[in-house]
Amino acid sequence: MKRNTVSSRAVSYTVQGAMIAAIYVVLTMVFAPIAFGPIQFRISEALVILPYFTPAAVPGVFVGCLLSNILGSCVVLDVVFGSLATLIGAVCSWLLRKHKLLVCVPPIVSNTLIIPWVLRYGYGAPDLIPWMMLTVGIGEVLAIGGLGNILLFALEKYKHVIFRTQTA
Predict the structure, then answer these.
(1) Neighbours of 4 (CB within 10 A)
(2) Which of 134, 141, 109, 122 lies closest to 36, judged by CA?
């Protein structure tokens, strides 16, 4: 009986992570015109608040971002470092999960600090790094701080239904 419980939890964790990755990819691809480029607004980045609810969201948003960057024909630097920026933000959000209002801060900061360098050296963007930090930061604040927090508070009421794990 104990083995089935562990197995059920592992399956539940994997399915949740895969669903989050799939939703991230779909949102990125559907809104591709605003999701890629020097000034981006990735609606899918709102999902990086999900580690507040489940650790399965950490690999979920990372894999979703990685696949989105590959499918979006991003340069290798963006595939690697853009995805790592999302992973760093998701891990730190999970670490801050006991502080609901701070969950959105790590992904905003990690993307604001990392993505301008990707834009400069991966895409040859001519803008100054501080300017790109400002523009990327604004997009992240809107996507994560705005949409992400709306999502966080909307899901709060249903977290035990949506993010439950199998126990038997």
Answers:
(1) 10
(2) 122
Q: What is the pLDDT along the chain (168 residues), one digit of tens a residue?
A: 455 666 778 888 899 999 999 999 999 999 887 766 666 788 999 999 999 999 999 999 999 999 999 998 889 999 999 999 999 999 999 999 999 999 999 999 999 999 999 999 999 989 999 999 999 999 999 999 999 999 999 999 888 888 775 444
Q: Which of 26, 82, 87 is nearest to 51 (CA)?
A: 87
Tokens in use for 114? 């990392």
* SS3 assignment, position 56: coil
Tell me the domain boundaries of the chain. Answer: 2-32+45-162
Q: Which two tokens stand for residue 102?
A: 């701070």
- Contact, 168 vs 5, CB < 8 A? yes
C-alpha distance across the termini of the chain, in Å:
8
| C-alpha dihedral sign at 18, 33, 104, 136 | positive
